[in-house]
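User: Predict the complex.
Assistant: Input components as received:
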Amino acid sequence: MSENNSEKRSLVKCFFKPKLDWKFGLRLLVVIAVAFVVFGFFLKPCFIYGSSMEPTYGSRGFTFYWNDPHAGDKVTYGDIVAIRYRTRELFLKRVVGMPGDTIEFIGGKLYRNGQAVDEPYVKNPCVWEQPPVVVGPDQVFCVGDNRSMPRRQHQYGNVDRDRIAGKPIW
Amino acid sequence: MSVKHLKTILSLLILALLAFAVYWFAIRQPSPEDLIKDRLAEIADTAAKSPAENDNSGLLKAAAMAKFFTDRFSVEWPETDRSGEYESREVSQAFAATRKLYNTLRFTVSELQIKVTAPDTASVDFLLSADGSGSGGSFSDARLIHSNWYLVDGKWRIGSIGIRPVMGLR
């Protein structure tokens, strides 16, 4: 029993105070290389600033998204997507319209092809009025969940599919 | 070595030198893509404004903008009421007026796609990011640009431009 405890202590000590030999250096290099590849190309981190997706995402937060060059072809209604805006800047929005759809807001309610859309994720009151907009052939219509903010301060509308970088993992 | 052999070797050597000279000349010549890329960087540099800039140099820079556009220049900007045909000097005036509103202006070109459609025409798509600050606060924005370029008097110039938001209602 005591031998087992001392082994555990030794392991803990080794973890927090590793022996700085070439093996440790190699392990560190491997970890750095793997992290660079994984977080640089596949699972990209993103900080969230802004309240346009409240309450689904707070005005400040952090998430990862799967970086997929073909993500735009795989999205469907209700998906939350990361949209490439500028270098190192993304929009996080929800897809509510697909190519050919007509999207409008009447009295704060979203209408798709003339039918009211049930949006359980929209919690804040909305009074938006938006004339019908047709979604283009290679586009999707994206909007944030926070519709209580003034419409003019909220970036939403048609987005080219190829600007969709991926979906957040939470 | 016979004279005949020597002649053959010398002929081959001259041919090789000629081929190398042609190759060197060809690779030294910038491609239309390179020239357009440089031209865009020049435009971004001319349009930029630093806090240290005085009124005179600002006016000179605004006037210099005209050389980047063809004499008649068309704009398609559905978001605004600025769509239409302009003369290149009107572009300079518009730039001068815009530059007065800000203390700093910075333009960045990314996602550049150049298609040379004929020896003297090209279509160029890119994402233009603009950052600025002035008495009214700072701004940061981006637009997708589709432009048609023409080779006029040995220089590539913009003949038409289409501006649309990354995410928009049209």
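The first strand of chain A starts at residue 43 and ends at 49.
Let me know if you want any component modeled separately.
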